[in-house]
Amino acid sequence: MRHVAPAWDEALNGGKESVACDLKADRGLAQALLGRADVVLEGFRPGVAARLGVGPDDAPARAVYCSITGFGTEGPHTARAGHDLNYLGWAGMLADTAPGLPPLQPADLAAGALAAVAEILAALLERGRTGRGARLTISMTHGAHALVARRLGGDPLPRFLTGGLAC
Q1: Strand runs labelled E in 29-152
Q2: What are the chain's domains?
Q3: N or C, fewer C-beta in 10 Å, the chain?
């Protein structure tokens, strides 16, 4: 975002510090940062962070470690690479905009990022009571399924993403 939309980057990230770390070349720095983290958020395919030495088992027990995945950590598609459109397609959500593309990225933003924020905040509250961190996995495909679960009783709101709602 720094290069593509510098004004947005400044508005959203002003006052934050950034640390660049090559996980393969500077594992020590990555593990030192991980050792003092309250919250860790990663988006590698399952198993990659662990292979790089910064997986959930490498984080302190008090840390809230959240992995955002495309397809979860179990099943035949676990290691599959994907994109928002893939997750929406698997969930049956593209019917809302077919034949066009969705006007935004609901799997990334709602099923992934928003779900992660809610789970992380809940885990931080629990940690405040118990002192224990959490290991969370967010699946964008499974979250997209939840977004279209309203269809189980029929489709009361056709074209949900493209005119079905006044907003």
Answers
A1: 39-42, 64-69, 134-139
A2: 39-151 (3.40.50.10540)
A3: C
Kindly give the pairing relationship between strand 39-42 and strand 134-139: unpaired
Give mean pLDDT, residues 44-66.
95
Name the residue with tokens 């599959």: 80
Cβ-contact 35, 29 below 8 angstroms: no
Residue 83 bears catalytic tag? yes
pLDDT of residue 156: 65
| C-alpha to C-alpha distance for 118 and 109, rounded to whole angstroms | 12
Q: What is 28-59 written as a DSSP string?
A: HHHHHHHHT-SEEEE-SPTTHHHHTT-SGGGS
List pLDDT tens digits, range 76-124.
988 888 899 999 999 888 887 888 888 888 899 999 999 999 999 999 9
Catalytic annotation, pick one of 83, 84, 142, 155:
83
**Mean pLDDT of all residues in 146-163:** 71
Position 125, amino acid: L
